[in-house]
Amino acid sequence: MSKLAFIGLGNMGSGMCANLAKGGYEVAAFDLNDDAVKQAVSGGATAAASVADAVSDVDVVVTMLPAGKHVHQVYFGADGVAANAKPGTLFLDCSTIAVEEAREAAKKAEAADFIYLDAPVSGGVAAAEGGTLTFMVGGPDEGYERAKPVLEKMAKNVFHAGGAGNGQVAKIANNMLLGISMIGTCEAFNLAEKLGLDAQTFFDISSTASGQCWSMTSYCPAPGPVPAAPSNRDYKPGFAVAMMLKDLKLALASAEGAGASTPLGHHAGEIYAKLDEDGHAGLDFSGVMKRIRGEI
Ligand code: NAD
To answer: Which segments constitute the 6-phosphogluconate dehydrogenase NADP-binding domain (predicted)?
Structure first.
């Protein structure tokens, strides 16, 4: 079985790393935060003292980092992954970063005799811990075939979306749709309630009619109809406003570069940005319901 390095043991990475160790891989774990490394060791990984130490003797490097600048620094910075890994090592970045940053990383890796895949995920911390993430992978077939068994230890679904950057394209397009559909769902529940229709009755009808969508049936922003949804715990995340805003900004920047018209994506971005600005960055993104109801 291949030897792995895992770098970036935060909210998402810690559960993912534990599932790889549980799945039988030998995993060298590194994070700037020593406590996160200790937690990874208790989950079955081996502690690495640095990026260089983690990657020098492995076949696959998995990263789960905050943003594109961290990804480029970890892979291509001084004493980073590329400077220390064996030729042919597979780079598997699961972070959400800009499409252009992922394509640039793939080019740099290829020029240095490595294979880079962008493999961002759908699903939050619970899915990372439970091994039920959905991976959207961009990069060459050869890399995808090598990555698949590794990803499957952390996944419910693994999709090959095409060439370099296409995993990030799938992720940001999906999350732009999610951001828009959540606001629409909040508006519909609020309208129904204001006109005298209670949330459960509206849910029973609309969830089997043409308004049905994931934001309604799996993550209902009105408390009651979907017991596991954050709306039933005062909108504790879940998936925070700050994370939705990050993904919308990536989507809108890429849309502008590609000349793609996104009027509703743009408006959704403004709505989440205002919530963030008003101190609600840590609220679940379905908490936009509170704004629509005029409660915040
Ligand atoms: P996080 O901030 O909890 O974790 C990031 C980790 O990276 C931290 O432990 C940090 O110390 C480490 N790190 C940063 N720079 C480093 C470096 N140079 N070397 C080693 N370690 C370094 O973030 P998260 O919530 O785990 O999210 C990670 C990625 O997953 C992001 O790109 C995010 O957009 C994406 N994502 C998150 C969620 C979610 O629900 N949290 C869902 C889907 C996708």
So the answer is: 3-162
